């Protein structure tokens, strides 16, 4: 039979005769580095040093401040204990599927958001950039919340908490200290406008009556607004930088830098404390809270179900929004964290554990918060709903007011704010790691000086965050928090579902996942396929529609933002979406001009030759899918095999076989072929598409890989030599392009490696493209483990 032998240079082509009547194409290639064999060896990205490093980092990222200061309020406001039903359902149909999808996606390719979408879908490569923009914007203001907790933590190291009384330095005449009021009433006086009047003075000036109707603000509220923030009257009054906050913000960035300076190797150790310590504090606060008077009233107020609320669309909308933003899919953090996993890590189990921990933590935090709020309501002799709050108001006003009424109040204050600090740091770690990973994936050579990249990002983050330390900083923070990660994140998540479940194919993606975590049942495949294709995207559309219907202009307390401020917010919120469309338009314009609009779109929606599984020894084999038209009125498919970055070496026709074919490895749809000898499956639909001229009749392409076991071949394997065979059916000959004179000269000089009788190793074929020994492989790759088994 004619045998085509090719070396790593495209000119080393020769045809030899054989007697078996089949055409055999042999390609000897060298194992490349992380860059897919197209250049020098790139520095390693690194991995988690232990399995629990990733799990705790993921837990810390997913369980954040919102679980403590937002979920309890939502639960109280939406039917109490009944709210757990829609919350759990939304977790199953929206939160968990998105988390599992992104964890699998990132782990499979071992790339950050920007790099992974550049290879996965060129038309939507801007999707990764959009994620990075969201994380970068949130990263700027999120660290300010950490700075607040640092400020309060240091302020708590006193015998008496500074917000316990109305100090003249920062309080107004409406400040009402309940501690001073109780002391005044004990002496038969009347507390009014920060002053204790004796009974005779109060009676003469009618102070008792005025005190009953006076505006009262707790010291903790005035301390936060006037002393900590120095809050101005509106967003247009910028004021000056609060240097105390700027110093705390600097300390926050120093902590983040020190924890991330070595990437996941350093942050993976810090999370053992930052992810677990909040649970210790919550247990301590719960034990203390339930022993306080009025705690049972608060807990009952939190848990008592109002089943009628389940018929309210608002309740389901709030549950969907909370679980979506609690697990933080489509921000890039989940893809980034999982990209440092080992290829065989069970990301499915990790997703289940974190999802369950998220809802359990939210519920338990509600018990803690409402036991404390019940105590405050008892102390003030008011209803629980009069003191309940959410967000910053709960963390920096309500709770600080509560601890002033507890024995050894500084201890309880320190514990609470250290817990908030660790909760915030875990989320900030993931946000910053997402940004730095994007930079290092774009410029791999910078991995050797990663500490300087992290330092540069930290400096940029600090400078960008200084604006939030001004007197109008709180208004800007609330504006960014409302718009930065809202509609854009939802649109990104919907796009993800469409790209992975519909364009790439849910079954194909599930096959990729099972290549990592092992074979699963048919029910498991059907369940996740239905979720990703139908239920989860529909739920995301519901959340998006709900957010649009419930939209209200930005507001902070009673302050209504001016129109221009909302316009700025919309601009910030839609910036990631605009980037996605601009990049898509650029990619479309740069596509080959000879292709029609439909062919361009089809070409750009296919994974590139660099796409594929991570962490597998691969071979430099590149294949592309071509379609010829006007061949007896039928579209014909062929495969082009060449070295990456080089002109084509040979063209092999490919037959449309295996449509709907079922084999031992499962059901495969589309253009697939199963090699019974090696149990490999080739998926032609995965290949990029281009238009070529009329081809000869279709035939079958088989692929297999053989690894030598004798000493000579073992040495060649050690030097990076492998042999890949592409076999064509006897009735059809491969279409070999005419050799140029230079090719013929190179062919004579090319060494021919003799075949051996060694048994072939067990191999797997995922699709096609460029393969290397690094972490970047193509969509169709023949790869095996170091021991020769797949």
UniProtKB/TrEMBL annotation:
SUPFAM superfamilies associated with the record: SNF-like
Binding positions (Na(+)): 60, 63, 67, 358, 423, 426-427
Membrane topology (UniProt): Multi-pass membrane protein
Disulfide bridge map: 166-175
GO MF entry, a single one: metal ion binding
Record keywords: Disulfide bond, Membrane, Metal-binding, Sodium, Symport, Transmembrane, Transmembrane helix, Transport
InterPro entries per record: Na/ntran_symport, SNS_sf
Biased amino acid composition, Low complexity: 751-765
TM regions (residue ranges): 54-71, 83-105, 126-155, 243-264, 276-303, 323-340, 352-377, 411-431, 452-477, 483-505, 526-549, 561-585
Family from the record: Belongs to the sodium:neurotransmitter symporter (SNF) (TC 2.A.22) family.
PANTHER family to which the protein is assigned, alphabetical: SODIUM/CHLORIDE DEPENDENT TRANSPORTER, TRANSPORTER
Protein name, per record: Transporter
Organism of provenance: Drosophila willistoni
């Amino acid at each position: 039979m004619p045998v085509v032998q090719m070396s790593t240079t495209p000119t080393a082509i020769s045809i030899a005769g054989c007697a078996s009547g089949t055409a055999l194409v042999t390609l000897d290639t060298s194992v490349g580095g992380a860059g897919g064999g197209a250049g020098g060896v790139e520095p390693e990205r690194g991995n988690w040093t232990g399995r629990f490093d990733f799990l705790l980092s993921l837990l810390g990222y997913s369980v954040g401040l919102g679980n403590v200061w937002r979920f309890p309020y939502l639960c109280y406001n939406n039917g109490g204990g009944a709210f757990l039903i829609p919350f759990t359902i939304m977790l199953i149909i929206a939160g968990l599927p998105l988390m599992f999808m992104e964890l699998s996606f990132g782990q499979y390719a071992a790339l950050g958001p920007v790099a992974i979408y550049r290879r996965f879908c060129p038309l939507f490569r801007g999707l990764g950039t959009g994620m990075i923009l969201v994380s970068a914007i949130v990263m700027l203001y999120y660290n300010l919340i950490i700075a607040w907790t640092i400020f309060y933590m240091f302020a708590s190291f006193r015998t008496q908490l500074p917000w316990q009384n109305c100090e003249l330095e920062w309080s107004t005449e409406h400040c009402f200290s309940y501690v001073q009021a109780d002391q005044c009433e004990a002496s038969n006086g009347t507390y009014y406008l920060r002053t204790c009047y004796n009974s005779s003075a109060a009676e003469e000036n009618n102070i008792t009556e005025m005190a009953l109707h006076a505006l009262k603000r707790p010291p903790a509220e005035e301390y936060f607004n006037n002393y900590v923030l120095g809050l101005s009257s509106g967003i247009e009054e910028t004021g000056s930088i609060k240097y105390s906050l700027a110093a705390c913000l600097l300390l926050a960035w120093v902590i983040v830098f020190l924890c991330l300076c070595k990437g996941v190797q350093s942050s993976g150790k810090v999370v053992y404390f930052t992810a677990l310590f909040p649970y210790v504090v919550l247990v301590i606060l719960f034990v203390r809270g339930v022993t306080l008077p009025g705690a049972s009233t608060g807990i009952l107020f939190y848990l008592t179900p109002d089943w009628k609320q389940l018929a309210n669309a608002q309740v389901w909308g709030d549950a969907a929004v909370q679980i979506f933003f609690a697990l933080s899919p489509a921000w890039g953090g989940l893809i980034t964290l999982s990209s440092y996993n080992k290829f065989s890590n069970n990301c499915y189990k990790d997703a289940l554990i974190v999802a369950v921990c998220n809802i359990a933590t939210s519920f338990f935090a509600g018990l803690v918060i409402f036991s404390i709020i019940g105590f405050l309501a008892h102390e003030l002799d008011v209803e629980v709903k009069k003191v309940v709050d959410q967000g910053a108001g709960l963390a920096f006003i309500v709770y600080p007011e509560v601890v002033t009424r507890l024995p050894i109040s500084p201890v309880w204050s320190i514990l609470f704010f250290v817990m908030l600090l660790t909760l915030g740091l875990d989320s900030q770690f993931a946000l910053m790691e997402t940004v730095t990973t994007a930079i290092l994936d774009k410029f791999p050579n910078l991995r050797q000086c990663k500490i300087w990249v992290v330092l540069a990002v930290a400096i940029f983050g600090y400078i960008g965050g200084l604006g939030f330390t001004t007197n109008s900083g709180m208004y800007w923070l609330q504006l960014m928090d409302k718009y930065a990660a809202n509609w854009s994140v939802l649109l990104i998540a919907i796009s993800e579902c469409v790209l992975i479940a519909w364009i790439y194919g849910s079954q194909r993606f599930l096959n990729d996942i099972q290549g990592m975590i092992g074979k699963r049942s048919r029910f498991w495949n059907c369940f996740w396929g239905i979720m990703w294709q139908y239920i989860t995207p529909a739920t995301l559309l519901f959340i998006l529609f709900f957010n649009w219907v419930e939209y209200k202009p930005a507001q902070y307390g009673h302050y209504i933002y001016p129109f221009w401020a909302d316009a700025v917010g919309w601009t910030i919120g839609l910036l990631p979406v605009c980037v996605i469309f601009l990049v898509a338009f650029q990619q479309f314009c740069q596509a080959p001009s000879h292709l029609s609009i439909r062919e361009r779109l089809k070409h750009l929606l296919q994974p590139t030759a660099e796409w594929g599984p991570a962490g597998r020894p691969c071979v430099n084999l590149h294949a592309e899918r071509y379609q010829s038209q006007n061949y007896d009125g039928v579209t014909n498919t062929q495969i082009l095999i060449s070295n990456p970055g080089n002109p084509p070496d040979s063209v092999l026709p490919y037959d449309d076989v295996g449509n709907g074919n079922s084999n031992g490895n499962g059901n495969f749809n589309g253009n697939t072929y199963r090699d019974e000898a090696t149990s490999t499956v080739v998926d032609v639909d995965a290949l990029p598409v281009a238009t070529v001229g009329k081809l000869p009749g279709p035939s079958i392409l088989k692929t297999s890989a053989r690894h030598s076991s004798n000493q000579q071949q073992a040495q060649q394997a050690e030097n990076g030599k492998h042999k890949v065979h592409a076999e064509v059916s006897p009735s059809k000959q491969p279409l070999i392009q005419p050799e140029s004179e230079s090719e013929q000269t190179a062919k004579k000089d090319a060494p021919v490696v003799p075949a051996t009788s060694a048994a072939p190793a067990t191999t797997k074929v995922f699709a096609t493209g460029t393969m290397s020994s690094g972490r970047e492989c193509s969509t169709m790759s023949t790869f095996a483990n170091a021991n020769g088994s797949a």
